[in-house]
Prior knowledge:
The protein is α/β, with parallel strands linked by helices. It has helices at residues 9-24, 88-92, 114-124, 135-140, 165-172, 175-179, 244-266, 283-286, 288-295, 340-353, 376-380, 410-429; strands at residues 28-29, 36-53, 56-57, 64-66, 73-83, 100-103, 129-133, 146-148, 159-163, 186-213, 218-228, 234-235, 239-240, 273-280, 304-310, 328-332, 356-358, 386-390. The strands form two sheets. The chain has a 16-stranded mixed beta sheet that branches. Helix 10 (340-353) links the parallel strand 16 and strand 17. The chain is elongated and about 80 Å long. Residues 443-447 have low confidence and may be disordered.
Amino acid sequence: MEGRETATAGQRKAAAYIESQFKQLGLLPGNNGSYQLYYNVYQDSLISTALEVNGQAFQLGKDFTINANDIPATMRFSEVVLAGQNATDSLKNANLAGKLVLLTGNISLGRNSKGTALLSMLQSKGAAGVLLVNNNYLRSFANRRQQTINLFKKSIAPQLFFVSEAVARSIIGNDYDNATSGTTAIKTYTADVLLDVKKTTKTLQSSDVIGLLPGTDLKDQYLVISAHYDHLGKRGDSVIYYGADDDGSGTVSVLEMAKAFAKAKAAGKGPRRSIVFLANSGEEEGLWGSEYYTGHPTFPLDKTTADLNIDMIGRIDASRKQGDSTNYVYVVGDDKVSSDLHMISEAENKKYTKLELDYKFNDPNDMQRIYYRSDHYNFAKNGVPIIFYYDGMLGADYHKPTDTPDKINYNLLAKRAQLVFYTAWNMANRNDMLKRDIPLTDGTASR
């Protein structure tokens, strides 16, 4: 499906396939008569952009690139506030309202990173524009599609340009060398700087695919079993990012579990609670599909006992040195939200699958922050108990065109999916919904 990138023809074909499977299994449509829950994706096309310093024009892709979320605007500044990466305290005490700030020191951006926190602080102080010196971003952002699901915002972020050292030196001259040495001071320079972005915005659509298996005496309570079916698409006509493990492995596991539960129901042994089989899109773009579902749930979140989320369970973590690498799965988040989760998971594994359950990524100091990086997180932050199943494959094939079906360990994939199934069976049939007795942390808040 051409890599199933969100809001593309390949993603729509994948959604249609999943819907056809849900229909064949006799699942009911999970969104008021429809199997698909649509949401808008806003895609920007760049018409033109320019960066000039004292009349000198710089080249897009060589000297600068823009952030995917920049708003169309033309800004002309007569001075620039220089700050290094260690100047946080000085910036906190500075008057930055309407200012252009130049940040040096190759500050990196990413979820919960120091750079992202710094940009957030600059926004709160009313900075109008930011020039961030980092050559890596010139390459990584140059060819990205500029998309968002949040077109309307509570506040507008500063116009962000990633710039080369040449741009920085054109503003501050030889002072650039001192600016990268870790100084905590800030300094203002006189320079005429033009930042210009012209874009057009197209409204596209993506969708989550939802199948419902109605329960019996507890049918008004729900268990969600989820995975994301989108991946990174293609580059040109020949390079496809297949995403076999990420997250073809999770998506086919959801389909197989739907088949097993439907077969049980046909035999008169269906689950007491209703089961929501949820295939999300937009995960690779920033957990979009699950964000939309939890913001517009088709089944009440306060009646949802848990979300069991599967994202990559078909490969082996080459960096895992302890235990049996052919018989494990990482269990993430079973120590969050509900004290029931760990006990149930352990008991079902001990009884049926006997995998090594690895809790490495439950560590609050996990540098990779795996707990926050898949669709379960949008359920957890809304107070729904979750377990995330994961194989840890972040090696050479992660987010590369080489994540292909021939590299899947199918026996291990099946065994891991069986653990999720047995855990789901318990949660769907036990007398009580899972307790929600562990306070949420890290800025999350329960509904």
